[in-house]
Amino acid sequence: MHRIMITKQNNEIFSTEGKYVHIIGTDNYFKRGLAIGLSVEQCEEVDEVPQTTNTKAYEDKVDSLIRNRYSLSEELGILRQKDTKKAEYDAYFAYCEQCKAEAKEWLREHPNGDLPPLPQVEEVTDYLSETTDDVVGFGQ
């Protein structure tokens, strides 16, 4: 029998087993997160974050990789002549498949695409402690 070991302590929610916490009904996964307005009952423990496809980021990355070798005009020309210049089309097609595989790998490493990663709890906590130290009467 599997015991759920999610706990809430000091406004943080986390798995005592070192697993990921998933907010049920959302795409939000984390190891340790702020629990303001969030209860343990709204969460479940999972072993890993499922791979989701950020379609726009994936398509943009594939397009960018293809453009490194082929302009849009060149690509249209190859497609237009695919029956008469089979070897050229086959090389183009293989390159596009390679670009798709590279984009999938890139997306695994950059799930938000080119967006900067979200700050972690420790970073936010450090920032807040630095910015509130100088406030007169803070915490009194």
Name its key features.
3-stranded antiparallel sheet, elongated, 15% strand, alpha+beta, 140 residues, 4 helices, 6 strands, single chain
Q: Helix proportion of residues, in percent?
A: 40-55%
Spatial shape: elongated
Strand-and-helix sequence, N→C?
EEEEEEHHHH
Output the number of helix runs: 4
Low-confidence stretches: none
Q: What can be said about the biggest beta sheet?
A: 3 strands, antiparallel
What gyration radius follows from the Cα positions, in whole Å? 23 Å
What's the β-strand tally? 6
Q: Span from first to last CA?
A: 47 Å
Strand content: 15-25%
Helix and strand composition category: alpha+beta
Overall mean pLDDT: 81
The largest sheet has its strands arranged as: 1-2-5
Overview of the structural elements:
41% of the residues lie in helices and 15% in strands. It has 140 residues and is an alpha+beta fold. The longest helix has 24 residues, at 86-109. The two termini are 47 Å apart.
List the helices and strands and how they pair.
Layout: E1 6-9, E2 12-15, E3 20-23, E4 29-30, E5 32-34, E6 43-46, H1 55-67, H2 72-80, H3 86-109, H4 121-132
Antiparallel strand pairs: 1-2, 2-5, 3-4, 3-6
Helix pairs in contact: 1-3
